[in-house]
Design goal:
Chain lengths: 324, 324
């Protein structure tokens, strides 16, 4: 048996961590968005891969919600002293990941480096970038077309979003690990973690060749809603839904996955707080449960609920026609 | 009045610091070797410039002899955790310098960045790279031709040195600050700091166009011997002298600067411990004084001695003929 999870950063990493904990070693592949990757100070930074890796290794910073536990910020302090760029906060320990990744990328793929870091940190499941080739999310806003990290960190998601462009996506091939997980005869379910549908999941499923493979799948695809009570637990998902003319709710998430984004999701998991919305979700099977993950127990329980739900959901007939 | 000092790393930085302290602001230019510069983890590292800058800013690590005071090593610890390269020790605060320099080098010269860092750290004298173009010292050894930092740090100067190659030196132009200091009508003396003659001083004076300018100088050039009691206070200078067939001594340093390296040094400063060697130095004026710098007082006193000595030394007739 194997499970494929698609994830972005913090929220996705939490459910991925739960799945990693409840599944036997080697049965989970987490495919991670790399559209947030960027170059900073000459270093290759992969924020979502790092968040997933740190979280599954149990070395993530729980208070802060991102980065490493027990982090120090002496490099940042010294950067301030010499008038350096400090808008993107790089912890001293976190820097090691970026330095070593950058060094190794001269001769190795992002997949190989990601797998090796995960193994060294004791992770028993697979963490895989969506592609080994560069994809760079650009955000079209009322202040212009800006790189993702400028929107997300420097401008704290304040600009109004009109659209997204994923530079490089047409040229990027899926990583070998992504294809392997999709092709695995043992695959039992695909889980879309509670990540931002536009910024985290859209780039993953849009990597060339992935949609046709998803359309051919014989396993259920389960979405875990990132919206609870009309709000995103973290990040700009709800704000972006409003900017895209959608009312932020689990119903809207279900409609988006059922009709716009994927047209092939089979089930959605929504929070108890949104139980009243379940009846209004027409196109997907619905599981109502606690989706807020405050600790490892929450993560594992939600992971089990999602896996049990997947066993009861049948893959829908696929409306997708490969344009090629 | 102005003074030009040529310096490599730790030893040179100490005297440069003394000169900076006793000279009025703006009257000292320290031209620093960049042959030790290298790329590591995608970052541009300029070890000698950093040592001089940190020392003149009073933020250098006195116990360790290099790097920053109050340094932490959390990035290195995290690098070990992921199996990263740790042979070159990068402190958390020191990393800020490399990160910001690397970022700014995309649009600015090393000279501009070095000057700005120095100003932000409160330094009132000029610190100037010998060139804004890359020069990379390669060490020809019994284990092959290896990059300088591999020889110096990774192999701890253990290999036997047969010769040196300065990649890029023929193409590298002197920095504007170097030329300005040499051309300044106010120039009163050139001080060769107690740095390694082969690794630190040779590349500086070998930058294209510098030797002819030195030959035309009308001011004394004073060498401070890096050898005391037959040993180098720091680094492989004495070991290299032996490997090059020279007996490590201040006499040998004097002969090297008088006949081999520059042929235009006018005076040499040697340590009290080597007072007995003074009579055997024939071609240069000699000052015997304390050259070991344990604290700021030592540095300032030696700097004053060197400057006073320079006033009593006349530039020698120049044997140099410009081959062009």
């Amino acid at each position: 048996m194997s499970i494929l999870a698609l994830a972005g950063g913090v929220g996705g990493a939490k459910l991925a961590d739960g799945l990693a904990a409840v599944l036997p070693p080697g049965e989970l592949t987490v495919v991670v968005n790399t559209g947030d990757d960027f170059e900073h100070f000459g270093l290759h930074i992969s924020p979502d891969i790092d968040t997933v890796t740190y979280t599954l290794a149990g070395i993530n910073n729980l208070e802060q919600g991102w980065g490493l536990a027990g982090e120090t910020w002496n490099c940042m302090g010294a950067l301030e002293r010499i008038g350096g760029e400090t808008w993107f906060r790089l912890g001293d320990r976190d820097l090691a990941t970026h330095l070593e990744r950058t060094r190794r990328l001269k001769t190795e793929t992002l997949s190989a480096i990601t797998a090796d870091f995960a193994a060294r940190l004791g992770i028993k499941q697979r963490i895989v970038p969506m592609s080994d080739e560069p994809v760079r999310t650009m955000v079209d806003t009322n202040v212009g077309l800006i790189p993702f990290q400028d929107y997300f960190v420097r401008l704290a998601c304040a600009p109004e979003v009109k659209g997204l462009t994923f530079n490089g996506l047409l040229q990027a091939r899926p990583s070998a690990g992504f294809l392997e997980a999709l092709h695995a005869p043992s695959l039992e379910a695909i889980v879309i973690c509670p990540s931002n549908p536009f910024l985290s999941i859209l780039p993953i499923i849009s990597v060339t060749g992935i949609l046709p493979l998803l359309a051919k799948r014989r396993v259920p695809m389960i979405v875990v809603s990132p919206i609870v009570g009309g709000k995103a637990l973290k990040g700009p998902a709800a704000k972006m839904m409003l900017e895209f003319g959608m009312q932020p709710s689990s119903v809207a998430v279900a409609e988006y996955y059922a009709h716009n984004l994927l047209q092939m999701a089979d089930g959605i998991v929504i929070d108890n707080e949104d139980a009243g919305e379940a009846e209004r979700i027409k196109d997907l099977d619905v599981l109502v449960t606690g989706t807020i993950m405050r600790n490892r127990d929450d993560k594992s329980r939600l992971a089990r609920d999602v896996l049990d739900f997947a066993k009861r959901v049948a893959p829908r007939p696929i409306p997708y026609t490969d344009p090629l």
